[in-house]
Structures are given as structure tokens and as C-alpha cells.
Description:
- Helix content is 37%, strand content 14%.
- It has three helices and four strands, in the order ββαββαα.
- It has helices at residues 24-32, 53-75, 89-100; strands at residues 5-10, 19-23, 36-37, 44-47.
Amino acid sequence: MADEKKRVNVLMGPYRGNYLDMPTGEGDAAIGGHWALDPYSTEPYGSHGALSDEERASALDAANAWAKAQWDAIENPPTEPPPPEGETEAQRKRREQQQRSTRDMKPADNPDTYKTRGT
């Protein structure tokens, strides 16, 4: 399921020392990328041993890239939601028409100049 979350203990990057809840796929990738640990694991330092300098640098880059992606998503939200999958052209046009057809509820400048049936 897309709603499933995984808690990780972040070891590197801007969120170092924090427990984060993230989607399961991202949590597994963080653990596999050696920049986070499963806090519920029985192994004290996860399933890997000591990291080489290249592995450590790669893990730090991955942690920073993940953090930047989170901030970019917050600072630049999508302007319009993507259309639903499988939407036909007629459904798209109907949805766009419904978005455009809203009433202007502001009062007129001179309400006494309204045209009515009696005038």
C-alpha cells in the first residue's frame, strides 16, 4: 500500500539524529543506502559493517539528495494536480468546465441600478 510508513533512525545528512516516518520504499532505500537504520532491528548497527570512505560519501550524498527533494517539494508545490489516470477527453473537459464555472459573489458597486423584472 502507498500509505504504509516506515520509521528510520537517520545517521547522516541534515536529519541526522532524528527518527523519521517515511514511505516504506524510501525507508528501505535509506537503510540500504547506509544513511539510516531500522530502529526496531535487533542488530546494533544494521546489517552492514564498517563503511569505506567511498561508501560513506555516497551515503551522505544520498541523505542530502533525499532531504533536498523533501524541501523542494514543500517550496515548489505543483500548481495543478495531475489528471486522474484513465481520464477520457470528455471527462477532462467536464472537469475543467466545472473548475471554471464559479459565481462571483461580490456585491455590485451600485446595487440600486440592478435590472429586475419589474423595471
